[in-house]
Write a structure and sequence with these properties.
85 residues; mainly alpha; 0% strand
């Protein structure tokens, strides 16, 4: 099946990269401010902080999962006792 390119399709195909470039340029200008370079060391420090926070939160999740397992076990035992009566 052959696709016929219309003028609007051709326009979209040629303009898309330019639109993406301009959007990225605008975003970087807004977030970089006057400095024209990215502050990699700041990003690395932020990543380190976020990893520590993630590890702490994941540890909390594991603790909560253990508590849920224990609660489910207790509930199961109570249900068994109630069914025996």
């Amino acid at each position: 099946m052959k696709v016929l390119w219309t003028s609007s399709m051709m326009l979209i195909w040629t303009m898309t990269p330019l639109i993406l470039f301009e959007s990225a340029k605008k975003y970087l200008q807004e977030h970089l401010g006057e400095s024209k370079t990215l502050n990699i060391s700041k990003w690395k420090a932020e990543i380190g902080t976020m990893r520590k926070e993630k590890d702490s939160l994941y540890s909390q999740i594991k603790d909560i999962r253990k508590e849920v397992e224990q609660a489910e076990s207790v509930r199961s035992c109570i249900d068994k006792l109630l069914q025996e009566k």
